[in-house]
UniProtKB/TrEMBL annotation:
The chain crosses the membrane at residues 37-60, 66-89, 110-136, 148-167, 179-199, 205-223, 307-334, 398-418. Keywords: Membrane, Transmembrane, Transmembrane helix. InterPro entries: EcsB_ABC. Pfam families: EcsB. This is ABC transporter permease.
Length: 424
C-alpha cells in the first residue's frame, strides 16, 4: 500500500464515523450474546406475557381497578425514579484512546456523541414507562396530554442530569467520599422527581417546568465541565467495560462453578420417600419419581407458580373474550415447558441405571404432564367461570378446563409417538 493510500484512509476516518463504528460493534456483540439463549421457544415464553399485559392494559383503560383508583399521583413517579437512579452516561471510551486519540477535539467529539446517544437511548424507557402509566395519569387523575408530556420531559432531563452527575462522581472520588456523593446525588434526584407530584393545579405544572429547566441546565453544565477536563478517562473506560459485559454477566450469573453446599436440612416437600401411587407399573414408578423431583426443585416450582399467579391475575383483570384466550393459551405454554421433562429426568444417575422401555417413558411423560398442567388449567377455568357467571360458571369452567387439558395431553402424547416413530 502506498503512502498516499494510507493517508487517504486515515483522513477518511472522522469522529462521527468512529463513534458509529463503536456503537454498531457494541450492538452486534449484544445481539450475538442474546442470540445464544433466545430461540423461538424462549421468544414464545416472552411474547405470551406481553400479550397478557396488553390485554390487562386495555382493561385498565376501560375499567381501572380499585387499587389504581385509590393510589395517589406521586405513586406514578416510583418507576421513573428507578430509571433516574440507574441512568449512566455512555462514552464508548476504549483503552487505546489514550495512545491514539491525543487530539482533544477527537475526545470532545466522542464525548458529545456519547451524550447525544445517552439522551436518545434514555428517552426510550421514559416514553415506555409513561405510556404504561397513561391509564393511571389520564384515566384516574385526569391529567391532560400536555401535562403528561411535561412530566415525561422533566423525568427525562432529570435522569440525564443524574447520569452525568454519577459519571463525574465516579471519576473524581474514591472510598467513602464516593459513597456519600452518590447517596447525596440520589436524594437530590428523588426529591426533584417527587416534590412536584405533591402540588396541585398551576403550581404543579410550574414545578415540572422548573424541574425540566434545572435538569437541562445541570446536564449542560456537567457536560461542559467534562469536555474541559481529562482526569476521568480511566473511569470512563472502566464504566464502558462494565456496560459492555453487563448482558454477559447477567446471562452467566448462574453458570459460574461454585463449591457445593452441604445441605443438612430436608426438602420442603416429600421429606420421606413415601409412595404417591399404589401401582408398581414401571411407567407409574417413573412418573412418581419425576413428579417428586419436580416438586423438590425450587427453580421449576418458581416457574410453575409464576404461570399460575400471572395467569390468575390476567384472567381476573380481562374481559370475557380475553379470559377464554388465556384459559386456552396458558396451559399450552405450561405443557410446552414440561413436555420433555420426564425424558430429561431419566438422565439422572439413579434413574439411568435402570432399563426403561419407550412405552414406559411415553406413559410416564403423559401422566407427569397431566398432573403438572391440570391444576393450572382447572384454577384458571374456575377463576374465569366465577368472574363471569358466579358459582355455576365456576363449575362449568372447571369441567371445561379438565376436558380441554386431557385432550391436549393426549394430542401431545400422540404427536410425540409419531415423531419417535419417524425418527426411528
Amino acid at each position: 500500500m502506498t503512502m498516499a493510500g494510507s493517508d487517504s484512509m486515515a483522513h477518511a476516518w472522522t469522529i462521527k464515523r468512529l463513534f458509529y463504528k463503536r456503537v454498531s460493534r457494541y450492538w452486534k456483540e449484544q445481539r450475538r450474546v442474546w442470540g445464544t439463549v433466545v430461540d423461538w421457544v424462549v421468544f414464545c415464553y416472552l411474547l405470551f406475557p406481553l400479550l397478557i399485559a396488553g390485554v390487562v392494559y386495555a382493561g385498565w383503560w376501560a375499567d381501572p381497578p380499585a387499587w389504581m383508583a385509590a393510589a395517589p399521583l406521586w405513586a406514578a413517579q416510583l418507576p421513573p425514579m428507578l430509571l433516574a437512579l440507574g441512568a449512566r452516561l455512555r462514552t464508548f471510551a476504549e483503552d487505546a484512546d489514550v495512545l491514539f486519540l491525543q487530539r482533544s477535539a477527537w475526545r470532545r467529539g466522542l464525548l458529545t456523541y456519547g451524550f447525544a446517544y445517552t439522551a436518545a437511548v434514555l428517552a426510550v424507557p421514559v416514553i415506555l414507562i409513561y405510556a404504561l402509566l397513561l391509564p393511571f395519569l389520564i384515566g384516574v387523575h385526569g391529567l391532560q396530554i400536555p401535562e403528561v408530556a411535561l412530566l415525561l420531559v422533566a423525568t427525562w432531563s432529570v435522569s440525564l442530569a443524574g447520569g452525568l452527575l454519577r459519571n463525574r462522581i465516579l471519576g473524581r472520588f474514591r472510598g467513602f467520599r464516593k459513597v456519600i456523593s452518590i447517596g447525596a446525588a440520589n436524594v437530590l434526584l428523588l426529591l426533584a422527581l417527587l416534590f412536584p407530584a405533591f402540588l396541585t393545579g398551576g403550581a404543579q405544572n410550574a414545578a415540572w417546568l422548573g424541574c425540566t429547566l434545572c435538569g437541562v441546565a445541570t446536564a449542560s453544565l456537567l457536560l461542559r465541565g467534562k469536555l474541559r477536563q481529562d482526569g476521568d478517562f480511566a473511569s470512563d473506560v472502566q464504566l464502558e467495560h462494565a456496560a459492555k459485559l453487563s448482558s454477559t454477566a447477567f446471562l452467566v450469573r448462574d453458570a459460574v462453578a461454585r463449591k457445593p453446599l452441604i445441605r443438612l436440612d430436608k426438602p420442603l416437600l416429600f421429606r420421606r420417600s413415601q409412595r404417591l401411587f399404589r401401582s408398581t407399573a414401571p411407567s407409574v414408578v417413573l412418573a412418581e419419581h419425576a413428579l417428586k423431583w419436580f416438586l423438590r426443585q425450587w427453580m421449576m416450582m418458581r416457574y410453575w407458580f409464576g404461570f399460575l399467579s400471572l395467569g390468575m391475575f390476567a384472567v381476573s383483570q380481562s374481559p370475557l373474550f380475553a379470559q377464554i384466550a388465556l384459559v386456552l393459551g396458558i396451559p399450552l405454554l405450561v405443557n410446552m415447558m414440561v413436555h420433555n421433562y420426564p425424558l430429561n429426568f431419566t438422565g439422572e444417575a439413579f434413574v439411568r441405571q435402570f432399563p426403561w422401555e419407550d412405552r414406559d417413558l411415553r406413559a410416564a411423560g403423559e401422566r407427569t404432564r397431566l398432573l403438572l398442567v391440570a391444576p393450572i388449567a382447572v384454577v384458571l377455568g374456575a377463576v374465569a367461570g366465577y368472574d363471569g357467571f358466579g358459582l355455576l360458571g365456576m363449575t362449568g369452567g372447571i369441567l371445561f378446563s379438565a376436558i380441554y387439558i386431557w385432550l391436549v395431553n393426549n394430542l401431545t402424547a400422540a404427536f410425540g409417538q409419531l415423531r419417535a416413530m419417524r425418527n426411528s
